[in-house]
Amino acid sequence: MQNRRCLWGICVKIWAFNTPGEDAVDYVYREAQQGRSRFGWGYIDTADLRLLEKKFWANMTEDETICYMKTNFLLKLEPGDWIVHINVPKWGHCTAAQISGPYKYDPVNNEVGDYRHIIEIDTSTIVTFDQNDIGVHPVISRRLKLQENHWKIRFPFEFESTLQNLKSGSIANPSNNSEKNLEYFLAEIFKNITGVIRDEVKENGSDWGTDNGADIIVKYESGLPIDRLSMTSTLVIQVKSYVHRKFS
C-alpha cells in the first residue's frame, strides 16, 4: 500500500496526534494507560465516523461536517500502526503506543466534553519520553514538533531505532553518540536550505562510505538560472564534536 513502510517485518504507519486541549491532557494520558487512544472533534453525540461515512454531505449538520472533515483519517488507522501523542503527559514529552484494535466512538460524554473518538492501543507497547532525549533520533525529534491536528512520521526505521534506544537505554553515554547525532541534525538543516537538492544530502553511512574524510555531502544548485549558466556544486563537510571536561 502506498505510504506504508516496512518496520519490524510488517508494513505500518506512524501517526502523530497534536496536543490535546489544556484541560484534556491528563484525561488523554490516563485513557492511554487504559488502552484507549483518544482524539478530539467528538463533542457531539452524532460524530461516530462509522455512521457519518454512510451519509451524504447534504444530510450532515454543520457540526457533523466539521467533525468528519477533522477526523475521518482515523478510519485509515490499522492494528500494528503506531500513535504518538504530542505533549502528553506534559509539554515536550510524548506518549507512543501500537494500535491493537479498530476505531470506536464513545456514546457517553466524558469529563472534558470531547475526545470521544477511540483507537484501541496495546498498553504493553506504551513508551513515554522526552522528545529531546539523547535516545531520540534527530529526524524523529524534528518530526515531533507541532504541525497540524495530525500528521504522519515517515521515518519508520529511525522511529524503530528510537523506540529500541528508549526501551533498552542502550544510549547511556551521550558523548559516544553526539557526533553521529550532530551529523543527522546538520544534514536535516541543509536539506531545508533554498537551492540545496534535498535528495542529494547524504550523511556518512546512508548509501555511501567515507569520501575524502567527509561526514556529510551536500549538492546544491549554483550559478544563474539560465541555460548553460547553472550548475550543480558539491559541498564536503566534516563533522566534529567535543566534550569539555574539568579536571581537578
Description of the structure:
The protein is an alpha+beta fold and 248 residues long. It folds into two domains: 5-168, Roll (ph1033 like fold); 175-237, no CATH class. 23% of the residues lie in helices and 29% in strands. The chain contains six helices and eleven strands. Strand 1 (5-7) and strand 2 form a beta hairpin. It is globular. Mean pLDDT is 85; it is low at 1-5, 172-177, 206-210 and 244-248.
Question: Which key phrases capture this entry?
Answer:
2 domains, three-stranded antiparallel sheet, ph1033 like fold, 248 residues, disordered N terminus, six-stranded mixed sheet, alpha+beta, disordered C terminus
Describe the protein's topology.
Blueprint: E1 5-7, E2 10-12, E3 14-17, H1 25-33, E4 36-39, H2 49-52, H3 62-71, E5 82-86, E6 93-105, E7 117-130, H4 138-143, E8 150-152, H5 156-168, H6 178-191, E9 196-203, E10 216-223, E11 230-237
Short summary of the structure?
The protein is of the alpha+beta class and 248 residues long.
CATH architecture of the largest domain: Roll
CATH class of the largest domain: Alpha Beta
- Supply the number of helical segments: 6
Oligomeric grouping of the chains? single chain
